[in-house]
Amino acid sequence: MSSLLLRNARVGLSGPVRHVLITDGRVAEVSAEPCPADQSVDVQGATLLPGLWDAHVHAVQWAQARRRVDLSGARSAREAVSLMLPGSGLSVGYGFRDGLWPDTPSKEMLETAAPGRPIVMISNDLHTAWLSPAALALIGRGDHPTGVLREQECYAAVAALPPPPLDELDRWVAEATTAAAARGVVGIQDFELADNVTDWSRRARAHRLDTRVVCTIPKHRLDEAIGRGLRTGDPVAGSGGLLEVGPVKIFVDGSLNTRTAYCDTQYPGTDSYGLLETPPEELHATMALAAAHHLHPAVHAIGDLAASIALDAFESVGCPGRIEHAQLLRRTDLARFAKRDLVASVQPAHAPDDRDVAELHWPGRTGRAFAYADLLAAGATLEFGSDAPVAPLDPWDGIASAVARTDDERAPWHPEQAVPLTAALPAASRGRTGVRPGDPADLMLTACDPAGLTPAELREIEIVGTLLGGRWTYRSSAVLGDKATDRG
Fold first, then answer.
1. 272 alpha-carbon distance from chain centroid
2. How far, in Å, CA of 306 to CA of 287, rounded?
3. pLDDT tens column, 413-464
4. Dmax over Cα atoms in the chain, in whole Å?
5. Which of 41, 247, 271, 355 is 20 to 30 A from 443 (CA-CA)?
């Protein structure tokens, strides 16, 4: 492999200007003087940082959401319906938040507005689907009483929808990795409820992938994964190092917006504590089976009681793994996240997004919701993700939200839980804190030093270039030139 020299790069936050040599996909040298290389490019003082990772993505749903009707602005069920009315045939919308709606969605409301038309609307948190009678009939659920399907019913309904042609869908997903690279992303962890190892292997053969991918395993495919000899952390054969076997996803509870997160306290005005998807005994048995075959658990836990159940299971089984989301926590559980080889996989953009629904459904408890500063202080290892399409696949949105605790004109929400940029960037970079010889050349170049930017400016930061194993996956012709490289 040829060598590449990045000249005049500002290395790290507020770092010095240096010249960085990349050889065989790794950083070979960081020096004050330029050295010979097969190719070189003057990056003109751009800041060189480790590339970003999105630790929690639903790749197919994100790729499709980029082409669906945007329902995120709907303030009521009727307003959401009005957004779906243009068009014909099967229409799919995405992004509604019904936790604050004054009216109740129903299949009759959709039928009245668009008689006989198949319409599917998927909530922002992916835990609710709202279908018209024609759409229900399309998936064999014409007898459903309301057309509003939650949790496992929702997942099954979305999976049963007629998919785009497989080659077209794979192209959309590959294009989504290219779009992510343009924001400095070098890797994603995909949590689709699918055979992700097989699906991504097919995509890697047919398309150029511009990020690395950790391919998670749904709980219902655990036995199959064991039979195939898959192990968390192993490279996927034939992928050229781009694909890695991920953890096994296990649900303990539901979500906040759907009021199915499993909590110590009842939801206001109800007798419901949320939904326990996997009882403790079953969770322990599943995690133990996975761990015995070198597959790490990734346990979905949003409510405080769910998180406590997950922590109990990790302590009992004694295996490495992850707790996904950890949105509401008991204060007495914070220190338990400091367990070695346990990752708190969190989505900072959800904090400003969900502040109103959290105040409504978790009253008096929001000081321990999205408690990133408390987790860091307790010694937890944080990894940031977006949960795309729940939030955009853009780690800078999450970084800014973690630092600012707001994404609009309102004052920060629980600013005591904000984290400094020096902690947010490693959490969004799979723990990497600098650019050093021997590191993988999975790097990004920003037009200016992020250390000097406001949260609003962080969200809009200009990416000059992204490198994956020393290969350009994105480059700005305005800064780097049309060819991006020249003889040095």
1. 28
2. 15
3. 999 999 999 999 999 999 999 999 999 999 999 999 999 999 999 999 999 9
4. 72
5. 247
Residue entry with tokens 């759409």: 135
Q: Minimal CA–CA distance to 19: which of 51, 49, 50, 41? A: 41
List the structure tokens of 56. 């929690």
Positive or negative, the CA dihedral 84, 86, 92, 95 is negative
Provide the token pair at 220: 């219902």
Q: What is the distance between the alpha carbons of residues 373 and 412, in angstroms, rounded to a whole number?
A: 14
Tell me the HSE value of 410 on the side-chain side, using a 13 A CA sphere. Answer: 12
Q: What is the pTM of this model?
A: 0.90
Tokens representing residue 108 in the block: 């009759």
Do 244 and 231 meet the contact criterion of CB atoms below 8 Å apart? Answer: no
Residues 263-308 have pLDDT tens digits of 999 999 999 999 999 999 999 999 999 999 999 999 999 999 999 9
* Residue pLDDT, tens place only, 134-178: 999 999 999 999 999 999 999 999 999 988 999 999 999 999 999
